[in-house]
Amino acid sequence: MNDHLRYAVQPLAMRSTTRSLRQNHVLEALPDDVWERLSPSLELVPLAAGKLLHGAGSGFENVYFPTQAVISLQYAMKNGDASEVARIGYESVCGVSLLMGGDTAPSRAIVQHPGYAFRIRASVLQREFDLGGAVSRLLLRSAQCLICQAAQTALCNRHHRVEQQLCRWLLISLDRVPGNELTVTHEWIANALGVRRESVTQAILKLRSQGCITNGRNSITVLDHAGIEARSCECYSAIKHECDRLAPDRPAVDQRDRPALRTTTHMHSYAD
């Protein structure tokens, strides 16, 4: 287990919760009275790359507020082909469709980048959502951001070259993880974009030859963010603008006055 994951599984009572809470913008924006109601039900859990959080057409047991993890929302066809429609990181919440009146998930949710998330029972969050107020407003804005991302992604996949799609995908991913390295394979990106793996490999080789990235067997490191942005299409800036516009206001709060959260004390295998 590497150092940052070992740190993350320590009980939160042993360290300040400030950093963890501020890694999810929706949780940070909760008013104190709402926080007092929800915090006993929140649990910090590790999410391994490739873990299925829920399948299409399945019901929800839990809703996730990512901190370091990035979650991919994908639609699949009967023949098994799938394409990513949106990604969720620390700026949002996974499971918001439940709160929009549906009993089942319209898409499957798979962990793309490993890390941590706060987990809460869907029934608990549903009760809070039904009260209206801050939780309702925050989650509806998160839903609107996801709708925008899905619509822009569909447009991008239809009209832009694979290299442009790849740059858009890399930039959106980097906005949701610390640092400039992504844990990902060519096959995953190809499935996410709905294109041939060979097309992704060619685009990666081109970006590498231009000094924009380096890549390993299961990773891509971005060396020139501005260069990647220049090679992307307008879809990245459109998605980023809408997500920034809808981002919750995160008031400064004294996290020391908030109760410590529970956390799991085990690590799931990345092969789970």
From the N-terminal CA to the C-terminal CA, the straight-line distance is 15 Å
**Class inferred from helices and paired strands:** alpha+beta
What is the spatial order of strands in the main beta sheet?
3-7-1-11
Mean pLDDT: 81
Order of helices and strands: HHHHEEEEEEEHHHEHHEEHHE
Question: Percent helix among the residues?
Answer: 40-55%
**Helix count?**
11
What form results from the Cα inertia axes?
globular
Low-pLDDT windows of residues: 1-20, 252-272
Number of strands: 11
Radius of gyration: 18 Å
Q: Assess the beta-strand content as a share of residues.
A: 15-25%
Pick out its properties.
alpha+beta; single chain; 19% strand; 4-stranded mixed β-sheet
Kindly describe this structure.
It is a single chain. The chain has 272 residues and is an alpha+beta fold. It is 41% helix and 19% strand. The chain contains eleven helices and eleven strands. The protein has helices at residues 3-8, 18-22, 25-28, 32-38, 122-130, 134-159, 162-174, 186-193, 197-209, 225-231, 234-246; strands spanning 43-47, 52-54, 62-66, 70-76, 82-88, 108-113, 115-121, 181-183, 213-215, 219-222, 262-263. Strands 3-7-1-11 form a four-stranded mixed β-sheet. Strands 2-6-4-5 form a four-stranded antiparallel β-sheet. Strand 9 (213-215) and strand 10 form a beta hairpin. Helix 8 (186-193) crosses helix 9. The longest helix is centred in the middle third of the chain and has 26 residues, at 134-159. The radius of gyration is 18 Å and the shape is globular. 39% of the residues are buried.
